[in-house]
Write a structure and sequence with these properties.
Blueprint (H helix, E strand, L loop, with lengths): L1 H22 L4 E2 L6 E8 H13 L5 H11 L7 E2 L3 E7 L8 E6 L2 H10 L3 E4 L2 E4 L2 E6 L2 E5 L5 H9 L7 E2 L9 E7 L2 E9 L3 E5 L5 H10 L6 E6 H8 L6 H5 L1 E22 L5 E21 L2 H10 L17 E5 L3 E6 L13 E6 L2 H6 L5 H8 L1 E9 L2 E8 L6 H4 L1
Antiparallel strand pairs: 1-10, 2-4, 2-11, 3-5, 4-5, 5-9, 6-7, 7-8, 8-9, 11-12, 12-13, 13-21, 14-15, 14-19, 15-16, 16-18, 17-18, 19-20, 20-21
Length: 412
Amino acid sequence: MKKKKIIVPLIVLLAIAVYFVAFYKNKNLRYIPENADAVILMDIKKLTGQYLFNLAMHPSQWSGSKSKGKSSGSLKDAGIRIPDFLQIFHLKDTKFSEWYTVLELKDSKKFITFLKKQNFVTKGNNRFQKDQIFVVINGSHCIAGTSDLAFETIQKQVLQSSSNAVLNADQLINNSVGSISFISGKKIQNFSIDLNEDEIEIKNNSNTEFFNAIGSQLEKEKHFLDLELDKENVRNISRFFNKSIADSSQISYFKATADLEQVNDTIISYEYDDNFNEVEKKTFQKITQPNYFIDIKSSAPEKTWEYFQSKKWINNENQFTAIPFQPNQINRNNDGVAIKSIRKPVSLSPQRKENYILIRNNNLLCSSLKTLNANEKRIISNIDYVLYGNKSKDYWVKIKAKNGELPLILRW
């Protein structure tokens, strides 16, 4: 009887411990500033559970994962308090490339040691940098981002202010491993992120029949780039680069097809001989350039042409200089303009009257990205294609990996 009295409470305590470790989540999102207009939320416990399940199904990776962790350094021993929800945010009126996150620290000294092992360079005042990743330590917290321009603002709003509004995770995420949310005042538009066997899906609607149908058609295409967009999609996408270009140029339809090619590029330099005569010197290098055809339809073709001229995007030889890959030719027609490379002509893919962007991986792509490290190149080379689709108010993005023996979560 005494053993039963002891075992029952132990089982209850164990069940409670398992619940808090594996299932309980603190849903208070304390580290998102009020002026954030976009938030990426990752459910760390759900992601960890998915990783452990896949790891258990692939015993061949057990020993490999341990050795990899020892050599590269583990976040578990980095002095960071692993959050239930990783909160990555973008601030209103900042560049699209600027994203930040705030993390709690258990031991700032351990964290600094971890950063140094990862080859971060000390910039003074508890600031560190490695390539385009910036980190600042503020007491028991750290702010990391792809820029350091908003560090002071974030510290004031999130770490030093007690009045910052606290969002709840249920407002942004619903039973998916992650989410992307766009915030405008009190309006929040959520997109779920699902990590599947060999693909990542981002969508705002669980009904994906339409998008799967487009995907199956486009998977047969072999072009590096194939896209077709209506006026609304042109406007939405151009906001990431230039808020006024879509409206000012009067573009109502945009279609493009492109392929990659490796070509010999001639570099001309000059040096002097013994008699100080200038001598031309030619060297050659291989570079990757696209061959393309772009069809732009406009509600006011004359205004479109005038807008391009006002931006000095059309030179005296009717080349479209906004595209750095030359030579090309731009011509007016009754509906708008057409831009095409003239080194090797490309034909437009068939018109589908749908909104989509397909970028297919190409061996020449990785070789041309000189600034990426070996790990980043490995990840990109593992991608088969990226596909964006839109139908009415429904949006969908699929990042499809190449077929492999391991699920995506174990490959990356």
